[in-house]
From TrEMBL:
Gene3D superfamilies, sorted: Leucine-rich Repeat Variant (1.25.10.10)
Coiled-coil regions listed in the entry: none
Matching PANTHER family: ROTATIN (PTHR31691)
Source organism of the structure: Amphilophus citrinellus
GO CC, alphabetical: centriole; centrosome; ciliary basal body
Protein name in the entry: Rotatin
An individual GO BP term: centriole replication
InterPro entries: ARM-like (IPR011989), ARM-type_fold (IPR016024), Rotatin (IPR030791)
Amino acid sequence: FKMVCFLRVCYCVDCQSFEKRTIQDPLQKLTARALMTLLACSTTAQNYAAKAGLIDTCVEQLKQTYSQLHLESVRPGKASHRKKDEGYLKEVKLTVEILRSALYCNDECKVVATDARLTLALSALWPWLLLDDPTMEAVLELLCVYTANCTTACSSLCGSGPGLVPGSKGSSTSSLMHSVMKLASGLAPDNSIIQNLAFSLLANLVMARDCRCLLQKNNFLQAFLSVPVPKAAGVKATSVSSGWSLLGLWLRLLAGLSFTEDGQQSILRLTGALELLADLAPHRRHALLTLHNLCFCPANKSHVIANDKAMKVLLSCLESKVMETRCMGASAIWALLHNNQRAKTALKCPSVRLRVEKAHSISKKGTFCMFHYSKQEPMNTYLLECLENLSQLLNT
């Protein structure tokens, strides 16, 4: 209890003194790091920060830094101002790192940041962020934390949320989300941290309907069809570098998008996307997950059933040694058959029935080795339910 009280006192002192310090002050970094540590591990400290005005102060500091950078940019002799710009950007980096800790998993603090118009402050700074990778990384990390499980925050990035100036109208070409899409779709070296963070942020944003609409209006998803696919597509991606490949980033984004009905339809509107996903599904989990989710949209069922590659992949999942893969295959086929006479007619053949019955029999007997069975038991129960329903539908 004494330690908690001590930390609260230190926190209050730091809140009051931090804004008075400059980037040259050796105590500023120590103060900031202590504050970040406390905020990241304590919801109580975060709430104190919001009430003490730390979040508002940080956002206001970003706005003031923009004004200073803008003044420097219009003065002659820009070369002599580079050092000043670097100093300002270091302040921005430190400020957004504190904000990231203050907003981490705290909806109330995110509301405070939205009311302070955090998005507008960062959008104004964007031209300078593009010139400094470390600061851009810190800003993208902040935005990932800010938008996680918060549709209001997501909406503020696409120009339709409460973070806008009253009376202004959001534009798909001027919103912060549009800038993030440019960042994600631009040419970048392999394993680019900035591009990886940009895609992670977009994966958060697609949980909001207006953000999904903006993706579709700007034809951003069309770029997926031109992503280079490795020749050795049959090799399962296991390394960190392959997980950060452009293809891997796109597949994670599409998987998130496919959890909503309008997102599923936007994926199917891409000519050739279903075929590409079917090609990748046997080797890429996120491609299989996306294909699985597409089967749950009534408007998409006929397209999936008519695609031989997709159906072949889903049926082959029933024979996989990986329980999750078998589960996704059985679940997808069950979804296709539900209230769909055309699907029942197409799949009522001896070969399909045999695969389903075999998978059902094996799952009941527990022939496949299962590590940590207690953790897999719910999945095995769901798998059996899927297969039992499939057998019933195919035999009626």
